[in-house]
Amino acid sequence: MSQVFEQLKEQVGRLREAFVGRLAEAVDAQTLEQVRVHFLGKKSELIAMMKQMGSLESEERKHFGQLANELRNSIEQALEEKLNVAKRAEEARRLQKEAIDITLPSVGTSRGGRHPVQQTIDQVRDIFVGLGYQIAEGPEIEFVRYNFDLLRIPEGHPSREHQDTFYLSDDVLLRTQTSGVQVRVMENCKPPIRIIAPGKVYRPDTPDATHSPIFHQIEGLVIDKGVSMGDLVGTLRLFAKELFGEQTEIRLRPHHFPFTEPSCEVDVSCWRCAGKGCPTCKQEGFVEVLGAGMVHPWILEQCGIDPKVYSGFAFGIGAERVAMAKFDVDDIRHFYENNVDFLKQFR
Amino acid sequence: MLAVLSWLKEFAQVEASPKAICDAMTLSGSKVEYFHQEAGHITGVVTGKITSIAPHPNADRLRICQVQIDEEGKQYLQIVTAATNVKEGDVVPVALDGADLHDGLKIKKGKLRGELSEGMFCSVEEFGYSREEFPEAPEHGVYVFQKPVTLGLSIHEALGFKECLIEFEITSNRPDCFSMEGLGRELALTYDVPFHAVEPKVQAQSTEMTATHIALGSVEAGRCAHYELRYVDNVVVQPSPEWLQKRLRLAGIRPINNVVDVTNYVLLELGQPLHAFDYDELQGPIDVRFARASESLTLLDETELELKANDLIIADAKRPLALAGIMGGLGSSVTEKTKRIVLEAAYFEPKGIRLSSQQHGIRTESSSRFEKGLDVQNVHRALDRALELIEALSCGRVSSEGLIFESTQECRPAIEWSSDRINKLLGLDLPVSYMEELFTKLGATLLEKGLLQAPSYRPDLEGEADLAEEVARFYGYNKIPATLLDQKSFVRGGLTPVQRLKELLTELCLAHGFDQAMTYSFESPKTDDWLLLEQESPLRKRARLLRSAEELSVMRSSLLPSFLKLASHNSKRWVKLAQLFELSKVFSAELNEEGLPSEKNYLAAIRYDLEEEKKGGRGFFVMKGLLENLLQELGLKDYQLRAEATASFNPYRSASVYCRGQLVGQLGYLMPEVLKHFSAPASTVYLELNLDLLLPMANLKRSQKPFAKFPPMNRDLAFTLKKEHSAASVEQVIRKKAKPHLDSLELFDLYEGKQIEDGYKSMAYRLRFRSLDKTLTDDEVNQAMEAVVESLAKQLEAKVRS
Fold first, then answer.
1. Which residue of chain B is at minimal alpha-carbon distance from A295?
2. What letter does residue B153 receive in the DSSP assignment?
3. B493 contacts A129? CB cut-off 8 A
4. Chain A residue numbers touching B626 (CB-CB < 8 A)
5. Preceding peptide of B431 cis, ω within 30°
6. How far is the C-alpha of A187 from the C-alpha of A183, rounded, in Å?
């Protein structure tokens, strides 16, 4: 081993120690760069040592080259690692300075709300659409024929009187029920028929907490071969469970509607107290929500549907009544005053 | 119909609690509205004997009583009373500590002027009764028992408060249930126990015949299918026995005298109204005829009635006696002096009764029953029942034979039925014997196989479906097994395309921050003037309601007034910002192809912001944003806003919306006068779209086209120009010259005021250039910009600001 080689080797060792010392002191990108220049720059000791390599024997030169490269690589690697750490720290400090107050208000428009009565109608609609029903519509200004005559509501029936019906002429009125849509559908479509018909209806009631001259009904109609009252019960039970919850039971009470026979009123077990009795159900355990029945054979016949072949059921739901119950609304007039402070509660 | 439970039980012996009976009746079709025990709200009152009375040391008007409240003499109370009508040894009702009395009165023990009082003596008024029910009670003061009574007995026992009253809701198809007998029949069927019908037996011990005393003249058969009179002499008018009075009172009818009470009793029991005439006030034959011009009648309640030619009346040779089936006349009514009566029973046509009842505004127990349609075959029996009671009460001697007019009745057709079809309709599987037995119990007559005759008192039984209902009712609606429709006949559910589009628009309005409203469809006819509509405006062609209150008498022809009311209502309730919308109908007197007044579908939206600055017109642009998104949702990008003066709108701050050359809506601020009429805020902006025009234009088809992948280049351009040049005209110039690589154009600054010459404005646009197939060079963009600047200067005299 030549003396030069020994000196250089020793110098490499010193350099390594010196670097470790300087590296420990360097904390940011700038000082790390100074360290890099010092140890690896053009004027660095290492470069100067490399220049002396020419005076070495080939064996020694090879050996020293290895030592020098190792030193350079380890310096570069150590510097890079430390530089990355420093950069991340610097980035973190910068981000912290740019922190935002996440509790400041949001930007952009807040969403509007669907009217609670519409929400109710939509919910009912979606349940029946899922059961294969289509949505039928009819005019709000209607012939007496569709609203009364073809529904077997006899002349002289109290509901036909001026205090219960808005008339535009002797044979035209504002529909008092959506049941007329049934007849229109049966006149125009062949069975099988499965429709629901939501819409506005009108009665000359003076507005108070439970009456409104305008309100919404949802009519349902199914006509097919072999439709039974059991199907009506099954359908309404499914509907009640969907709308008011799985634990809901229904109760049918015989009633009279001129356009269905047999007819019934349908109560659902109170969704608030599960039938135990509470103010919502007036201690009854049940709340009346709809009227229903098997379509009267006379009506089928009038619409050109053979009652010996086909049968069907119909039902009608008061949307406001259900909405008031579901949303705890205490006065039906709120629905038509449209006070934004009322409406926004249903957004 | 208010029923007395003990009365119903005369027809059907049912041993069940009142609550159970009410529930069962409701579920078999006689809906119970409510029921209550007689004096059911009274608690804690017992009989007590006053054993000693001593003066109160501190009050002259009060006395201190010792009261024994048990038979054994172990329980005594001290009660301080102000009552003056009690003496030692009297037995009286005693309200104990905690007792509930009528009108919510609650009794608490305490000291009265320093002396302990452990209860209170009661009058019948404190139980909700009066001297009408208890004539032996003193006018003022504590009730004192007249007969011996056990001490410590509850007041309900002691005074006979045992009845239960049930209010039934009777549907219009069941006139038979407006009677105790009819409800009794339902009760018997509900509990499947024997039914005991009323079968009156008249002794008719008099040898006199009605015809000897009075003749029946003409009867208007078209309005009166059955008319019957029976003469009764030796009449003694006096109060009815207590049991009869009590039943009437419980059922809500005031007892008058035995004759009138008997007719009312039969009215309640069998549902058939009857009338008694004072025979000595009648002259000549009785006619059932139409009233003549200028005839008048003083009714029992002393109202003077001008009769009309379509009123059916009962008249003698001289004068009208009664408004048939509605109310009797005062002149021939039964009084205390009456010695002889003629009892009338009849069947009057419902239509005629309704007509007279309506035109004179008189409704009575009698008229309301006739209106519903009674059983013509029940008339004779009801009269017999009254005669039977008259005999039983010894209030008169019944003639041997009556006078009867009967018009021939068409026989009701028999009903064809099959148990198979009924089972199929109900989804049940009941044996034919079950049904046959039930129909027999209902009173039907089974004819040959598959045919039956419904009883006359059940006019509602017309066909097989009605029989099916009877089966379901008494089998139990709630026992019908739930099934779901045969899924083999599949029907596709869902919304129609138009319904889907409306749903999309609704969703969009909601997303835009608008709340959905629901408004009335009718309004006042004054609205037309308030909206400043021209006289020839089609919106004035209103569909009108007959006999409706003025403020609700015309159908709306536009949604604007409804929405102005919303703005007004909300601003008056301190709502700072309101954004509301509705998809609804408007109406016109013009008839559609069906011959009905036409209906159109509209979308309306309104917005006000009480803090909006007037100058900028921000509300307009919020609404324009909504409009643009709505149209975009419908795939309608090629729309125009035109500044056209339209009634109701502020011509300088509003626009008409055109799509494909058609006027489809309006948008803008409103005339101050219009706002004033509705008291809506100044910042109110309104948007209205005709959906019947718009929705058919909708194009929901979207398809992919090439889109840019190369980098864009931005250029900002600021310039001043005269105010009157619209943004649209500026943009038109820019777009034309910046083609073909202009990717987007955005106004980022608009300024008027300081540093800008009066009448001028400063606008700053950012132009973004981009090519579909290459990276643009500076030169290409610069050339385009030069062309833009030159054109702006030339066409709009715009000066570019550096």
1. B465
2. -
3. yes
4. none
5. no
6. 6
Kindly report, residue by residue over A234-253, the tens digit of the pLDDT: 999 999 999 999 999 999 99
State the nearest Cα–Cα gap between A324 and chain B, in angstroms.
15
- Does the beta-carbon distance from A112 to B552 stay under 8 Å? no
Q: What is the pTM of this model?
A: 0.84
Tell whether B599 lies on the interface with A, counting CB pairs under 8 A: yes
Task: Give the mean pLDDT per block of 10 residues along chain B (802 residues).
Answer: 94 94 94 90 93 91 92 92 90 94 91 91 90 85 91 91 93 92 96 95 86 90 93 93 92 93 96 95 92 92 92 94 94 93 94 92 93 92 96 92 87 93 96 96 92 94 96 96 81 90 96 96 94 94 90 94 97 96 97 96 97 86 95 92 91 95 96 96 96 95 90 94 93 92 94 88 95 92 94 93 74
Residue B199 in contact with residue B269, Cβ under 8 Å? no
Q: Which of A205-209, A268-272, B586-590 has the lowest mean pLDDT?
A: A268-272
Distance in angstroms (rounded) separating the CA atoms of residues B659 and B661 = 5
pLDDT in tens, A175-202: 999 999 999 999 999 999 999 999 999 9
The ipTM value here is: 0.85
Q: Would you call A200 an interface residue with chain B, using a CB distance cutoff of 8 Å?
A: yes
Interface of A with B in 220-249 (CB under 8 A): 222, 224-231, 233-235, 237-238
Chain A nearest-CA residue for B586:
A140
Interfacial B residues in 228-267 facing A (CB < 8 Å): none
Q: Which of B489, B494, B555 is nearest to B523 (CA)?
A: B555
From CA B543, how far away is CA B557, in angstroms rounded? 8
What integer pLDDT is reported at residue B802 of this predicted model? Answer: 67
Q: How far apart are CA B366 and CA B275, in angstroms?
A: 10
Q: Is A189 on the interface with B (CB under 8 A)?
A: no
DSSP label of B596: S
Average pLDDT, chain A: 91
With a CB-CB cutoff of 8 Å, which residues 266-285 of chain A face chain B? none
Contact B485 A235 (CB under 8 A): yes
Residue A319 DSSP SS3: helix
The nearest CA of chain B is from the CA of A200 a distance in Å of 9
Burial group, residue B711, by CB count within 10 angstroms (0-12, 13-18, 19+): exposed
Q: Work out the number of other CB atoms within 10 angstroms of the CB of residue B308.
A: 14
Residue among B171, B510, B518 whose CB faces A113 most closely: B510
Interface test with B, best of A119, A233, A263, A329 (most B CBs within 10 A): A233
Question: Which H or E element spans position B795?
Answer: helix B778-796
Relative to beta strand B445-446, strand B451-453 is antiparallel
C-beta atoms of A112 and B587 within 8 A: no
Q: Which of A117, A50, A275, A97 is nearest to B582 (CA)?
A: A117
Smallest CA–CA distance, residue A246 to chain B, in Å, is: 16
pLDDT recorded at residue A52: 81
Chains A and B form CB pairs within 8 A to the count of 228
**Tens digit of each residue's pLDDT (9 = 90 or more) over A70-88:** 989 999 999 999 999 999 9
- Helix-strand-coil percent breakdown of chain A, rounded to 5? 45, 20, 35
Helices (H) and strands (E) in chain A, counts: 12, 10
For A158, other C-beta atoms within 10 Å of its C-beta total 12
Token pair 């007959």 is found at B546
Q: Is A172 on the interface with B (CB under 8 A)?
A: yes
